[in-house]
Amino acid sequence: MNFEDIKIPGKLVPDNYLQLSLAARRRRQKNFKELLEKRKLPEHGWKDEEIEALVHELSTLDSNNFSHNIGMGEREARIACNLVARRHYNFGHGIGRSGDLLEAQPKAAGSTLLANLTNALLLDLLQTLGMRSCRGCLLVPMATGMTLSLCLLALSKQRPNARLVLWSRIDQKSCFKAITVAGLHPIIIETLLLDKEQSLVTDVTKFRQEIDELGAENILCLYTTTSCFAPRNSDNVVELAKLAKQMALPHIVNNAYGLQCEPIIAQLEKALNTGRIDYIVQSSDKNLLVPVGGAIVATRDEAMLKHLGSSYAGRASSSQSLDVLMTLLSLGRSGYESLLLERSHNFEYLQHRLQEFTAQAGEIVPQCANNGISLALTLSSLCANPGDHRNALTELGSMLYTRGISGARVVPPGDVKCIDGYEFKNFGSHRDEQLKVPYLTVAATLGVTKAEIDRFFEVLHKCWDQLSKSNVN
Amino acid sequence: MNFEDIKIPGKLVPDNYLQLSLAARRRRQKNFKELLEKRKLPEHGWKDEEIEALVHELSTLDSNNFSHNIGMGEREARIACNLVARRHYNFGHGIGRSGDLLEAQPKAAGSTLLANLTNALLLDLLQTLGMRSCRGCLLVPMATGMTLSLCLLALSKQRPNARLVLWSRIDQKSCFKAITVAGLHPIIIETLLLDKEQSLVTDVTKFRQEIDELGAENILCLYTTTSCFAPRNSDNVVELAKLAKQMALPHIVNNAYGLQCEPIIAQLEKALNTGRIDYIVQSSDKNLLVPVGGAIVATRDEAMLKHLGSSYAGRASSSQSLDVLMTLLSLGRSGYESLLLERSHNFEYLQHRLQEFTAQAGEIVPQCANNGISLALTLSSLCANPGDHRNALTELGSMLYTRGISGARVVPPGDVKCIDGYEFKNFGSHRDEQLKVPYLTVAATLGVTKAEIDRFFEVLHKCWDQLSKSNVN
Amino acid sequence: MNFEDIKIPGKLVPDNYLQLSLAARRRRQKNFKELLEKRKLPEHGWKDEEIEALVHELSTLDSNNFSHNIGMGEREARIACNLVARRHYNFGHGIGRSGDLLEAQPKAAGSTLLANLTNALLLDLLQTLGMRSCRGCLLVPMATGMTLSLCLLALSKQRPNARLVLWSRIDQKSCFKAITVAGLHPIIIETLLLDKEQSLVTDVTKFRQEIDELGAENILCLYTTTSCFAPRNSDNVVELAKLAKQMALPHIVNNAYGLQCEPIIAQLEKALNTGRIDYIVQSSDKNLLVPVGGAIVATRDEAMLKHLGSSYAGRASSSQSLDVLMTLLSLGRSGYESLLLERSHNFEYLQHRLQEFTAQAGEIVPQCANNGISLALTLSSLCANPGDHRNALTELGSMLYTRGISGARVVPPGDVKCIDGYEFKNFGSHRDEQLKVPYLTVAATLGVTKAEIDRFFEVLHKCWDQLSKSNVN
Amino acid sequence: MNFEDIKIPGKLVPDNYLQLSLAARRRRQKNFKELLEKRKLPEHGWKDEEIEALVHELSTLDSNNFSHNIGMGEREARIACNLVARRHYNFGHGIGRSGDLLEAQPKAAGSTLLANLTNALLLDLLQTLGMRSCRGCLLVPMATGMTLSLCLLALSKQRPNARLVLWSRIDQKSCFKAITVAGLHPIIIETLLLDKEQSLVTDVTKFRQEIDELGAENILCLYTTTSCFAPRNSDNVVELAKLAKQMALPHIVNNAYGLQCEPIIAQLEKALNTGRIDYIVQSSDKNLLVPVGGAIVATRDEAMLKHLGSSYAGRASSSQSLDVLMTLLSLGRSGYESLLLERSHNFEYLQHRLQEFTAQAGEIVPQCANNGISLALTLSSLCANPGDHRNALTELGSMLYTRGISGARVVPPGDVKCIDGYEFKNFGSHRDEQLKVPYLTVAATLGVTKAEIDRFFEVLHKCWDQLSKSNVN
């Protein structure tokens, strides 16, 4: 609605009052204009009503919202349930067209704009965070795992005969399944244990060996992971990127929740500049605090992004673009930076509290120089009674959970897991060879508060004491 | 909230008034109970506030909504933007777990319940509609095309060496891309032209020939399509299902918008009973009038559904489950049946009006005995000036669109389209050999109104007259 | 937001797609423009999203929503609770200023516009409905009763020494309290019983007598009522208006739910033209189907409306204006007319069904030529046992209510009620002298459905049979 | 919805996951139970979704939301517009019954509960804030001015022949109009100027004189005001309450925005204990940060509250109760106390900054020992050019306003205002005799931020410099 074009009668409101209001509105219009023309994340977060105004306006650009639209096709974005229409701001057409996520839809100029704007703001955010070499971003409305699969399938189109994927082991199921879903064959490369630090790192040498042995022409790509549970470290993406470049092999990075961690970003930027990464994939929910369901693919080569977009079959949900756009506008650059800063402080606080705890409890915190998110705590004391320790571990996990602690994981040794025909010994510890002791992992991720950490230790102390006593008896 | 458990003081409300209200509330509780215990689509639609009450209550079962939750993991379903939380009713955890769409999440009992309930109601709906042999339904939060890809990839896990897909040609891009995205090789089987009816049917004989020639062991599956643009008919799913059974070959059906069409349902049910279909895939948006973004996979074998669910990598968006659940509850069985009935009447009306139009205009409506949704109208008059007819056709399309008619497609002869390296002559007409004349397709799909059809003909007449005049001149 | 002013980059959306959308948006802008410039009720209802767009835009005109506003006063329309802000679309300043409901607020151009626009649309509606002589409408955000009080107090300012109000008795409490709340003295004029019709009419003669006896200078005004429970008829507003004019006495009409009834409107228009009415007051909830809380005052003299507006002390809630504006835009003229037509049909249907019922049950339906909304049904059969009939009556009322019938009133004879010191014999029957038999009243008001009427008779039959049996025993 | 009563099948969600969720839900139920049973403000604010859950549940208790309701009356709370129903959470029946705000409605147990609960929480809040002698609270859905009128009219019913109101002058229009609207006669008692402090106080002696002269039997009540613009102080409510008690005269207090100010609360509590106050009236919007439209009446005598409630004619809007309830639950006791504390700090900060400013500018800040909200700043420098000073003053006001400063008032000397026939000399300065210089008032009210105050001084400095320069020239 454009008031400036309307001669509002003085009977409705005196002109001098109105003029002041119109002047104030022009500031809002300026924000809209700037956002659309410059496609940059605003410095400061917008108010809810401004965000909704933008989103509502965009949806008026879609044909299903034209007052004179006559739908004679097979898909006209009619929405039967009023509540559903409302929660989607009357967006119904999804994004992409005829199997290309980046193609514009003639029927849905608003949805097209929504998707492209979201991708542009994401690119701006990534560049701001330090991934300055990125040239393109695409929000894919699928889980991170499926999006990694899509990246593999896209690479596969270019190298149809190369069906092996060299993967630095990380014991997270969907990360691995991304390979098998795509019908490809994983070559699993175990992590190396640093004895002193009791933490795990990438076995770069083994990667090189495997390429030599298997033949580069049979290898689709290298596949590494940054953010992960301690005591595993982020993969050595810099070295592997160099290796990829040297061998002319594609390289994809699972940067699941790494956007929130400055050192990881720095490594990725360095890797982009000195080596080769084709796709960096990150979860939208973990990095942007939106509901589960999307992944952000970043590239330094726009052509590769287009190739990926065109590898999707069908139109896709615009719901994820909407969530991400609204969240980015709501936070603004400064809001996101505050979240990052707070997380970084809370990570240090968590580490400090854990070290305090271990000093008392006779445990250790493995040193992971390249893991700024997750921390581990050994649980050797709970293994005093050899026969019984599995129970004690299970009980600790269960006690924490019923007391409201979610996300703390007890990793017992000896679990064997079979995923799509591949067997993983000691699943959860990222290598076949057993770690000396079981441990517990906790993380300081975006949005965690100091109060939560305090409350966690309160509960941990209680559970620990209780278990220690019963262990003694 | 359970009022029955609270001793509400008479100072707040007199007990006799309250008791009447509590009695009324028990009816509502009975509905909730029945829905959850029986998992059947309610006969009559629920009111918006009842639907929202259910959805809100379900979301209280997810750990991110527990008042005492302490999130120490890497994914705790925190939602940064209030508007986003609100539009998702505070659901944040998505559905599925560790790469299995059908697995329950310990952190998210509510999301789990939401997803499973939606699948159960969909199954009930399909059975009611006539697909009585279905034993399982899964709403996949991806486009129909990608879901077809996922089905192909799932089959591929079971038959890793069979990489050919026998596909009855339909000129809809994402339908074809489902094959190439999965890294498989399509064998394109052209449709046959029925000369008298001027419509297209499945070349069953050619399917059989190809199997013989290529070897069943190399063929991953048969891949057919029901709902499509006239003058193509629905594929002969019954005969192909028999062939699949006979040859012990998997068979997937793209039933994109076929749920809304009784004869298609009847064919599918017959095919399920007399032959073999592994997965039937349909779009949620076209059949249920929700925003784009989901597909419903139906099977007669629960094990095949579980296999599919476990072929997804990562957790998935619960947004589509929410849309479908709310829509189903809003319509109820009777509401959906009314929509079907109205569509069926409107299809007949559209056919009748088209025949009237062609009688005047000297055109014909090809007879598609097996297409109850889409209708074609030849455009031979617009090709009077041979050199110029392409312009006239393009202009008709554009005139209709700018006048608010969306979804009416002009199919000119002679287009060649290349998709992922495969060339399609006369793209849009489902076969290489050219149809005699160009045509226009229109459809009567769920939600179209008689008023829209009337308005369409009003516009068509005007455009036709205008083009005829300028053609003469 | 004004897209036309923004150079949207082709990277966000191709210009040709965008242009079509902008053209569609111009239709919406045209609607906004027309509404604000002409201030007439739109012919057709607006879509929810159009209504909300307008309302949101209006609220941006209020200073509390300016992004740069610094509030240094005692009332800055800050809203603490996000949910409250949301449900009021960020309107916080209320309407009116410094004790004048019609004065514009410099801080709140949007709220001012909202209130004035609502009043303008109400005036247009009333004129359309047939009250063509109305020149002004004011939505007062208080109950009908309090608004009647406000009218009396406004008249009282002009005639401070006249403290008697001549009131045609109607047994509805708040209607009478409107007089006593204002500190004025009611002169109660009983209704006359028409013997044949068994219905009640205004005692015009008595009015004239009272004026003569009490002296016109002591009388503040005549006070009549249109819509009422049968067997009372609408007051003879035409004759009383003539009397008022002749005696130069003010006259106010309580037209509580009379807007929905064409004959009442016709009488009022006639009265306005041939006699004198100062204020006509009607409930917004009953006539416009909004939540309780407002009243519409109509006058034929704008000066009288201004006088009334300035008789309010303080600023008032804008919530009622919002409800009425949204409802009027949602219905449009045609929507409201459909509601009226449906009501009128349902009234006839209710009458017909009642007559059928009485024919069987040996009761009668009193004939109220001037009551087109409420109908009565005698309950003589329930009084067979003289000692017991009060119980039977109470039980009927209670049986109906517990079975979900709300609004059906059983009027037993003999109730005495004292309101603010005035005693009413046979309260509920509009006169001291007892009607022969008790009765039940039901009404066909705006929004009632045929299905509800059917269900009412189903329940009534069951209750009647049950009571008849137990009466016999 | 009560999950405990439903046997949720394991197919929907595993029972062990569900049980943990149900345990978490019990905490929520406990909160609901406590709120309704104890009727006390919760210590900590509730989450939005908890508030909405409560409100939705309450509305299911109203008959218009019963699924089996058949409305046969004249008011059945039907709501035509979906958006309106939604924003009122389907509450339609309003509060009160037949002209008594405190009476329960049989048709609307939920609305009744809503209103009574809100009143109970308000009472708890007032007692917590220090008005421990209060025994009853009533939220009246009318402006503060109209509510004061209602109080006067209620008193008037008890003393019908006493028509004079002794009013300590405060130049706020609606405060005065409260008297004239009620048809009563104000006796205006000017404030006294304290020479040294340059502030204004109540002329208690004059009150006593007027009672003697006019005769207590002719005086309806004393009428005082607490919160007001500097340099007026809060009235001396303690002495006037004593006088009222001594003379057996009613006394009402306009405590418009005084709830936010601890010293005012303390004075009122003292006055309640040592003297007589019948009704204390405060604005809901200014004290609770809800939209304009309600007033809270507090009494130490429940009977007086009931008398007031029964003095309202008709049913009233429940919208205000909803706003207040939601706001109170959202803030909780601790949230409101934080707001109070912040305001108190900001008042001191504003005072400090003003004193700094005056030291530079050669002006003074009048000392108002009994005004903890509003502050004045003399503007003598702007009157250097005698002929021109009015312009300079007007310009300052206008410059501030166009720069986004709302609520800062410039009070020029010499204004004469006539309200309902009463003339006020030097309107705005609370007394006929002119103050020596014009001044500007600003306030630190609930919700103001330090950043706003800083920005105000930034703007003030700029305007001041600009005006000073042009004054010189």
UniProtKB/TrEMBL annotation, chains A, B, C, D:
GO terms for cellular component: cytoplasm. It is an enzyme of class 2 (transferase). Its cofactor is pyridoxal 5'-phosphate. GO terms for molecular function: O-phosphoseryl-tRNA(Sec) selenium transferase activity; tRNA binding. Pyridoxal 5'-phosphate binds at residue 75. Keywords: Cytoplasm, Protein biosynthesis, Pyridoxal phosphate, RNA-binding, Selenium, Transferase, tRNA-binding. It comes from the Eukaryota. Substrate binds at residues 97-98, 105, 315. Converts O-phosphoseryl-tRNA(Sec) to selenocysteinyl-tRNA(Sec) required for selenoprotein biosynthesis. NCBIfam families: selenium_SpcS (TIGR03531). This is O-phosphoseryl-tRNA(Sec) selenium transferase. It comes from Drosophila albomicans (Fruit fly). The lineage of its organism: Eukaryota, Metazoa, Ecdysozoa, Arthropoda, Hexapoda. The gene is LOC117574820.
